[in-house]
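JOB MANIFEST
job_type = single_chain_structure
chain_count = 1
residues = 450
[input]
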Amino acid sequence: MSNHLAIATVTASLVRYLQGAVGADVGNAVVTAVRPDGPNSGVPEVGLNIFLYQVTPNVAWRNQDLPTRRPDGSLNQRPQIALDLHYLLTFYGDETQLEPQRILGSAVRALHTRPILSRQEIRSAIAANAFLTGADLADEIETVKLTPQPLTLEELSKLWSVLFQTPYTLSMAYDASVVLLTADSQPSLVQPVLTPAIHVFPSVTPPAPAVPDTLAGLQLWLRGDADITYDVAGAISQWRDQSGNNHHAVQPAAARQPRLVREAVAGKPALRFDGADDYLAIEQLNYAGAGAIDGLTLFALLRTTSPQAQVVLSFDRSACWSLELTGAGRVRWSTRPQAGGGHDLDSPGAATDGRWRLVCVRFAAGATATKQIFIDGILVAEANAHPGQNVGGGATRFGFVGVASQANAFNGATAGDFLRGELAELALYHRALSAEERDRVEQYFAEKYG
């Protein structure tokens, strides 16, 4: 969550980002952020002006923090508001040399190539502007994404009409979303116990925890606290498989590597995926042949606040299976049987509240409920999907962490829906664990991560 400087920080970071891009393409171009009222308003003779003309509440996040108060009116959590920032980009220069059009092309190319404000960009903007001292936008888990908005001629005319006696100049609109502002107020502590009371219940012994590799059938085990290869900036090129099967998750392209976050959960590290292009390809693990899977159990410890559709682990939902989060934040367990159409099982509620969640999905051919979803050890959804069939439509599919797969070869085709959040640990079994075994693995996660 960010303080009151977040909006100004976004504008300053956008100016800095575009100055680097436009300045490199059109050498004398200058980027400003003023109200474009005319030649005396401070807009550049040659360059680009960024004008924040409107701020609106983000619809997807509008009710994420309700309720914020207890029945007595005291805070039970820090209130936050999610905003979308609407910018007008205006381009100036010598029309005979087509400078406005050249600058527009440079800016659009830069914003399409990297449509987010990186944390390093934000930190640099804060350091370069004394009035932004104390801004904490760079620490926000949600990155700010920039999206072009196709305004109609009528909408552009209305927008320019509020700029008194200012002739129209070549322009383009962009949205920056989402910016989260949090109140400084701290929730009050709950009241102390006035009347102590002791209740005695029969003892219940929790199941003994089972480290994933102590159970048969472990196919893939990725831990945020073990065997990660990363550079000085924390960019991860390899996440080594701990199952002994050498199904390592790798990303050779530096621009697509997730980042290591130290002490992300219970003092242990996790991987952060930016939701734009970060993902890892899984080595030496694929499914081939119709009905190749008669049982499967997957555990994933993750955290996200993003309402966008995103993939945790995928072997192609239309050909094999995939664990995803929908645009509404629900956990989705997708499978494709050996014959017929695929099946999606969704959790009833969202899991994008920014808390760490242990998600477990299970498939067991021949069971009464072939598919199940557990969140934090609680069964939240089940279905008797494609009864009498195994999973696997017949096409060979390789897997990815953090993006949808369509790959028929290692590190092959992807299909978007990038993960935007943090992932601490994954454990995949090529069989359906029993209820007791599942309880024991969940106890392992509970004792390790608290």
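[summary]
The helical segments are 6-25, 99-113, 119-128, 153-161, 435-449.
The first helix runs from residue 6 to 25.
exit_status = 0
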